[in-house]
Write a structure and sequence with these properties.
The chain is an alpha/beta fold. The protein has 19 helices and 11 strands. The chain is elongated.
Length: 444
């Protein structure tokens, strides 16, 4: 079995002031539930702590809803602590009932292997591992819980783990109670998930000295089960912290567009689309997103919001948010490209060749010869060649209705020929039909 461990357990050292770190999390709205805060603060004051968060590979990509817990791990690491990211190849086979009204579809081993590899790459990109540029402090660990569950038999698991957890304790957890009272109910498979995750915490404590687990608010029952298992089996103290659910002010689910989830994989959600998602968030949401989904200092967020309040029409806070999130997920180059692409689509003035070049792969395109753009009815021909119009007659009617723009400039209702300066940089023409349909002509 492939082992996904990077780095090694950290030694003791000077930790960041525990009170300041926890106060920063609280100021960002990142604390929902926490075990004894005074005890946790005292432990953080002693020196670096090893903290983990698990990510089940139920798909071949994480989505932006995973950013909050993943960035919490990054915040711990940036403050001098050891971060452990767990890709749940084992728990992903069972499915977590927490926060769900019905059971997940079970995945086969081949699908899980693909998903674990994809999710692991995304975890690596947002944490700092041994040999990574910019690493300052303990390197992160990346583990797959199949490492300690793959060869464990049922009777061995029941003896070593199950005997330490009472059914009454499991039934008292909100994630189980809510499913038991639902029409769907809960299968024994999902009921056992809590034991598997509790065992993950115990194994990480035993192998790497992990003392803390973090996760979404729906994970509180699973986290406390792990803390209790560590106390019973190892006689040790462990800590837990959960994040509140990230919501949208309009009631819609965060991380969803009209069509689908917003993924971290650029093949599923283009960096431009990710950037635009955050460029378009509601003013009521932008501050909490800046605090929770970026690494911008709390004081700097306050300054951004003050500037935004002075000129809300410029959407300064949304621009900063989009840049920060896109740079974290996809890097500065893709963020710059996303900004250029938006300039090409929405600037309202003639786009530059760089802006149109950034649109490649974002809007549909058709390769044409330069001579195709020179005829007496070149605009009509271009609309048909692009597929924006179904026929020459359709193209003329659309032009006559004032629904055609070339390079962001609306064309006269009598125009049938492309403007003389339509070819930008000798390479591109951007056509637009109506408000949303755009097509890039590329001279081959």
């Amino acid at each position: 079995m492939k082992r996904l461990v990077s780095g090694a357990p950290s030694g003791n050292g000077d930790g960041v002031n525990g009170a300041e770190f926890l106060d920063d999390l609280a100021a960002r709205g990142l604390i929902q539930d926490c075990t004894d805060r005074d005890a946790l603060q005292a432990r953080l004051d002693e020196g670096p702590i090893t903290v983990y968060c698990g990510f089940d590979p139920t798909a071949d990509s994480l989505h932006i809803g995973h950013l909050t817990p993943l960035l919490l791990l990054r915040r711990f690491q940036d403050s001098g602590h050891r971060a452990v990211a767990l890709a749940g190849g084992a728990t992903g086979m069972v499915g977590d009932p927490s926060g769900r009204s019905e059971e997940r579809n079970l995945l086969d081993q081949a699908t899980l292997d693909v998903n674990v590899e994809a999710v692991s790459g995304q975890l690596r990109s947002l944490l700092r591992f041994e040999g990574d540029e910019g690493l300052d402090g303990p390197p992160a660990l990346l583990v797959d819980n199949r490492e300690w569950t793959g060869d464990v038999g049922l009777l061995e698991f029941l003896r070593d783990v199950g005997k330490h957890v009472t059914v009454g304790t499991m039934l008292a957890k909100e994630s189980v109670r809510s499913r038991l009272s639902s029409e769907q109910g809960i299968s024994f498979t999902e009921f056992s998930y809590m034991l598997l995750q509790a065992n993950d915490f115990f194994e990480l404590h035993d192998r790497y000295g992990c003392e803390m687990q973090v996760g979404g608010s729906d994970q509180w029952g699973n986290i406390t089960a792990g803390i209790d298992l560590i106390r019973r089996r190892a006689g040790a103290t462990a800590h837990g912290l959960t994040l509140p659910l990230l919501t949208r002010s309009d009631g819609a689910k965060f991380g969803k567009t009209a069509d689908a989830a917003v993924w971290l994989d650029p093949a599923l959600t283009l960096p431009y689309e990710l950037h635009q998602y955050f460029r378009n968030v509601d003013d009521r949401d932008v501050e909490q997103y800046l605090l929770r989904l970026t690494l911008v200092d709390v004081d700097d967020v306050a300054a951004v919001m003050a500037d935004h309040a002075s000129h809300p029409e410029e959407r300064l806070a949304q621009q900063r948010l989009a840049d920060e999130v896109c740079a974290l997920v996809h890097g500065e180059d893709e963020t710059n490209r996303a900004r250029l692409a938006a300039e090409g689509l929405f600037a309202g003035s003639a786009p530059t060749i760089d802006a149109l070049d950034a649109l490649r792969g974002i809007v549909p395109e058709t390769e044409v010869a330069a001579t195709d753009l020179e005829g007496e009815e070149s605009l009509v021909d271009a609309l048909v060649a692009s597929g924006l119009c179904s026929s020459r007659g359709d193209a003329r009617r659309t032009i006559g209705g004032g629904g055609v723009s070339v390079n962001g400039v609306r064309q006269d209702d009598s125009a049938i020929r492309l403007p003389v300066d339509a070819l930008v940089g000798g390479r591109y023409v951007l056509l637009q039909k109506g408000r949303r349909s755009r097509h890039l002509l590329v001279v081959g």
